[in-house]
Amino acid sequence: MTDLGEVRVPERDPGLQPERTRLAWRRTTLSCTVAAVLAARAALQEGTTAVAVVACALCLLLWLGFLRVAHHRMTELAATSRPRRLSARAAATAALCTMALAACATAMVF
């Protein structure tokens, strides 16, 4: 316990929450990787057209964007027992990349 004047504040025990959160980020990263690879595979199997190359490049960029946010968050979770909150910008980037990658992968299938 830490003394702050007369108020005693207990130390935070994060338990397994940071580890569970890191594992959730890893699962989502794996899902995005699979979607990007399958979209690229579908684009390249049907012939190399300009549309297929652009779709493949877009999927790659979206995957890299999500990977950057996820790696930063997993590193921060591992570094300290009390990580900072995920910024609104990082959360929006992760959500946008995930939804756009899912849309690209779905469009590639149909």
From TrEMBL:
Membrane topology (UniProt): Multi-pass membrane protein
Keyword Transmembrane: yes
Keyword entries, A-Z: Membrane, Transmembrane, Transmembrane helix
Highest taxon of the lineage: Bacteria
Parts forming coiled coils: none
Location in or out of the cell: Endomembrane system
Annotated ranges, domain DUF202: 13-75
Ranges annotated as spanning the membrane: 50-69, 90-109
Pfam families: DUF202
Keyword Transmembrane helix assigned: yes
Protein name: DUF202 domain-containing protein
Protein source organism: Streptomyces durmitorensis
